[in-house]
Amino acid sequence: MAAAVGVAAALAGSPPARTSLSLFSLADRVALVTGGHRGIGLEMALALAEAGAVVYCLDLPTQPDSDWLKVQDYVAKLPVSEQNLKGRLEYIAGDVTDQKAMWAAAESIAAREGKINICMANAGILHGCDCLEYSAEDFRKVLDVNASGVLFTAQAAGRQMERLGIPGSIILTASISGSITNPTQHLLAYNASKSAVLQMARSMACELAPKGIRVNSISPGYIVSEMTRGAFLQTGLEARLSAQNPMGRFGRTDELRGIALWLASDASTFCTGTDIKVDGGQCAW
Ligand SMILES: NC(=O)c1ccc[n+]([C@@H]2O[C@H](COP(=O)([O-])OP(=O)(O)OC[C@H]3O[C@@H](n4cnc5c(N)ncnc54)[C@H](O)[C@@H]3O)[C@@H](O)[C@H]2O)c1
């Protein structure tokens, strides 16, 4: 039986087994983060590593660039805390659209580390086009990465969690674009792919709950990254898009650290099948 925590521990008169902050510890946990070479993926990977996890960042480049290596070095130099929070960042090249390769990548992480506890299926691409003009090729490409790639990633980690009997946490990066249509933007394929991610999280959560595996999604609003730099910021749309949320600005990638850590950790053990929006209030309007 799990040791009592919270009020139950206080009433039992026992010393607290786990205080509230220690619930966020990821000591001895192993994570896979796709799209972990930059942007939101790298930021969430760093957050997990700071909490003690060994994090495998999977992305397209065959070798990580100097920025990624700097972040890896930063993690290596973090002091080891009393809770033994000694995280590590590793890099593996991979393409989320290759199902067999994704399953094999997760197998090899589990073989090396003995487990996978956390999966962040985060890799994604953005492509805009008028809905009546969308070519089959472009539409399929977006769905291939953003929907199929998310499924293959979640499957890859989930299969190892099931095989090893690990009560893991799978987190899918969706977007508010899966719940709303971004005003003035023609993002049909992206929006459809993110709606698919939202439903995938719900379906997987219900199937995998009996195995102790949780599945949730995160829906960011506009966040400054290479993706939005190319699509929106360099095209002078920042002011117009910022005005679409009550906070009047784009979010920063580091503003997703808290939700990533909460969903990945034992601080959220009763949360599954849920989408959490981090959007400066955009969907409240
Ligand atoms: N930035 C935003 O405003 C925003 C908002 C909502 C949701 N999102 C989602 O967050 C996720 C991360 O976006 P970001 O803003 O960091 O973008 P980004 O373009 O900076 O990062 C995306 C990463 O995914 C990788 N990637 C793309 N295709 C891949 C593939 N086939 N296999 C493996 N890796 C692949 C890229 O190489 C890149 O490193 C995406 O799913 C995106 O749709 C972003």
UniProtKB/TrEMBL annotation:
Any matching Pfam family: adh_short_C2
MF terms (GO), sorted A to Z: oxidoreductase activity, acting on NAD(P)H, oxygen as acceptor; oxidoreductase activity, acting on the CH-OH group of donors, NAD or NADP as acceptor
Alphabetized UniProt keyword annotations: NADP, Oxidoreductase
Record carries keyword tRNA processing: no
Gene3D superfamilies: NAD(P)-binding Rossmann-like Domain
Domain of life: Eukaryota
Keyword Hydrolase: no
Family: Belongs to the short-chain dehydrogenases/reductases (SDR) family.
Name of the protein described by the UniProt record: D-arabinitol 2-dehydrogenase
